[in-house]
Amino acid sequence: MSATAASQPESPQADGAPEPAARSPRVIRSEATTEIPVHLLFRDDPDDATGVPLAPAVVRRRQGSGEQPRVTRRSTPYVTAPVARPVPDVDPALVPRRARVLPGFAGVLGGCAGVAGCVLSLWWAGVLPEPALRVTGLPGYEGAGLGAAQWASLAGSGTLGLFGFGGLARGRVGRAWVLSLFGRYRGTVRRTGLMWVNPLLLRRRVDVRLRHWRSEPMPAVDRGGVALRVVLLVVWRVKDPARATLAVEDHQEYLRECVEATTARVLSRLPADAFHDDGPTLRDADAVGSALTRALAADAEAVGVEVFSVQPSRIEYAPEVAAVMQRRRVAALDARHRDTVLTSVVDSVEDTVTRLTTRGLVELDDYERKALVKDLTVAFYTGHGEHR
């Protein structure tokens, strides 16, 4: 069968006027035509709803037989372009630096010296109790009383003892100290063991170990607006204790809020399931986890938190839509199976008819060819149904 589409009518041109470029006629012919741009015949808008140009669908002639041509479409992959987000600014004074501390034995010596000075001052004043005299082995002394010199010696010794013992701190593996004086950042301590820190400094202990957090089921939606429930496993640690402590009120709460916002933003770019095509979906845990990790790491970097990985432990439909989507998934799987079986049957029929005609075993006219194709299709499809 052949059909022709009328070409554009010729318009009269004035003498000497340049002839416009001739447009190629859109023609549908018989088996000699191998490619027909179907999108020009059946579509008015060359773009789909997302604004991405679609590749033209091409009708190709089956090689070796005069059967009905196949229609193939080259799909354009779905591309998710990240949106540029502003990076939060932090106090420029929060530059990580090492705080000045002394070994622990210096604080112990200072404290012991202060205690010894207090004992001697009391003995000098003659007010040291009798049990203390027996313990220290000092001889009895009536003393000169608590005068100005004795009070000054007692105050200096007591201050030395308080500073010596009051500045002792124990550093532990996986912990850090953030020091500040009157609201000003003075440095970070990552040392372990006994050390002496100025007792006038305010100390904040920060956990810098590798940590993980498993979220509760969080609500989200996919690209089609279908409600989801997502559970994530976040592996992170504090990289900059100064920023994690002083740049934000609570870095753990900040991280939780960023996880919820990032999950809603990333999961809305893809559908949960692709029922009728093979495009990217949220079932690809590696791709979704990589996108979540990059987005969350960029948000948490400003407060000194380093995110190593964000992996979805569970992505499922919300209870209110789970039953409907499950039926839709089963129907899509059944349709895909039927399409696979039908494609296999058509290919088998095509191969059989081609072999019979090319080898000269039978000579068929159009009516006989159609009858043979019909009988073979029914037989092959019935055979596939019995083997299921």
Description:
The protein is an alpha+beta fold and 388 residues long. The chain has four domains: 24-73, no CATH class; 102-206, no CATH class; 211-317, Band 7 domain (Tetrahydropterin Synthase, Chain A, 2-Layer Sandwich); 323-387. The protein is 40% helix and 18% strand. It is built from nine helices and twelve strands. It has helices at residues 38-42, 104-125, 130-136, 148-166, 241-246, 251-267, 285-300, 319-358, 366-387; strands spanning 58-60, 70-72, 102-103, 168-171, 175-181, 184-189, 193-196, 202-207, 211-214, 218-221, 227-238, 305-317. Strands 9, 10, 11 and 12 form a four-stranded antiparallel β-sheet that branches. A three-stranded antiparallel β-sheet has the order 3-7-4. A three-stranded antiparallel β-sheet has the order 6-5-8. It is rod-shaped and about 140 Å long. It starts with 37 loop residues before the first helix and ends with a helix. The relative contact order is 0.08.
Structure keywords:
388 residues; alpha+beta; Tetrahydropterin Synthase, Chain A; 4-stranded antiparallel sheet; 3-stranded antiparallel sheet; 12 strands; 40% helix
